[in-house]
Amino acid sequence: MIVDRDPETRPHAARVGAAGWRRRFPACPRWLFALVALAAFGFLLHVYAGIWSPEYGITKFLRVGHEFNDRGTAVFKATPKFIDPYPAHRWGFDGQLYAEMALDPLLRDPHLHVALDDPPYRGQRILLSWIAWVLGLGQPFWVLNAYAALNLIFWVGFAWLAAKLFSPHGWPGLAGYAAILLTCGVIESMQASLTDLPSFTLILWALMIGGTAGAGILAAAALVRTTSLIGFVGLAEFAPPWRDALRKNVVRGLVATIPVTLWVGYVLWRFRGREVGFDGGNLDWPLRGIMEKLAEFTVTARNGPIRWHRWLFELYKSYDLHALLTIVAVLTQSLYIVLHRDWKSALWRWGAVVVIYFSCISFLSWESHFTITRHALPMTLLFNLLLATRPTKAWLIWFLLGNCFVPFGVRYFDQMHERQSPEPLPEFVIESPAGRGRGIDVQYGRGWSAQQWWPDMTWRWARGNTATLVVHNASSRNLGANLRFLARSIGARTLEVKVRDKVVYHETLPAARRVVSIGRIELPPGDTTLVFAVTGEPVEHNRDPKYGDDFTPGKVTFKMENPQVVVK
């Protein structure tokens, strides 16, 4: 199974037997692993076939947005492809940029300076673009579709490698194998044609082979994502004789780094004069990002769109609830890996480094929590592999907690072929006993962005330091009302609300989501204007389209989400 014959340098799964499990469970036929892989592949093909259309092929997986299509190269703009009409998707996602590079894999078109968000950074990740150009025979439409299919192609390789790791470990191995084939990180990479799954697959292959050959495969992974070089921690020798270990490490290091070094030098020369981009703001103190996400979830759980009265299956449809499940899963995986240390295992060293990195991911990335599951792929694989090799009565509990986020991702991917841009929601929910609020109407006044929405939420951003709401009372009597909404501020700032020059609310908004509840507001017949005033300068919400949650352009101060007016 493993090319490296030295038992001390084999990956962990190659050295840990399954005797404990075999005493507890019947032997698992190897053909069941093939059956599980075929079932998962059939599911993926079903989604890809549902996405395909004669006009666009499978380019829906590229997540092309209007913004980058409009500024793209001439050949990219002229090539038919699916573009989501939904306003919040105007930026698209990263896969569209690498697909555009595949149309010119030597990066010779000078317009790429404009077409790419960060040309020196994007240009470093070139291997998938080269492969797509070759598979598409240089024909633009074929090239874009070839790029959209690459994650599925690499998934086949990943499934084959993982079967070799899990198949010696019986029924627990089969359960772990089934979980990792369609785990959220795999789904996230596949649904947007990202580089994570291909890079992860190549690193896994490199560590399973080991030695100089493994370093050569790691070099290919580095041309997919330069951060793949983190996998070298699994290839390096950490055992005497030290002189021999040092020699091997130097040779393997050169093999792994020289190709990407030469290519990065070419990219910097091609885009000379441009500032070299890095993933700034993605790291923070350990666990701080997770804790901030958990705090945000507590606000959403009490006041957001989660329908707690529904059955568990219905709850699994909730994106907000999935944030909690993601936190539970990654913390479970991290804890299990730390508790079962094996420094001699190449896979364990790789996974342990990823645990450290993952714990330091900032709230900036955690805000879109489904996106960060792709960074957890090495942890998810190692967790399920370690769990399959250890006969313990708590196996099922660990397994369920560590994989509790998987069903949401499977359902999410299954709906891609039928997902349409949602219709706009009513901007205000007006509640009143005995129909007393039938004559109440609420409208956004001046100072707000255009409406943004998603299936179960709607919001607007305040553009400056003041904005207004207008409440119209069409009845002939005085009414009272409470206003509640979820507020999100870019930075800490003070919010003050006035009604007829009377302050009805004055609090400090943190740089996070929080509930704002404004007590009894007097509503005489006619119009009542609520004036919202905040301190601090407006700031750019989405300078980088990878960050944030709704891609509102321009400078803003705070967001009003899902406002409710309760008439008393």
Walkthrough of the structure:
The protein has about 575 residues and is an alpha+beta fold. It has two domains: about 30-275 and about 300-415, no CATH class; about 430-565, Sandwich (Jelly Rolls), CATH 2.60.120. Helix content is about 45%, strand content about 15%. Helix 17 (about 290-305) runs antiparallel to helix 19 (about 320-340). The longest helix has 29 residues, at about 240-270.
End-to-end Cα distance? 71 Å
Structural class of the helices, strands and pairings? alpha+beta
How helical, in percent, are the residues? 40-55%
The gyration radius over C-alpha positions equals 26 Å
Gross morphology is globular
Integer tally of domains: 2
Features:
six-stranded mixed beta sheet, alpha+beta, globular, 15% strand, disordered N terminus, Jelly Rolls, five-stranded antiparallel beta sheet, 2 domains, 568 residues
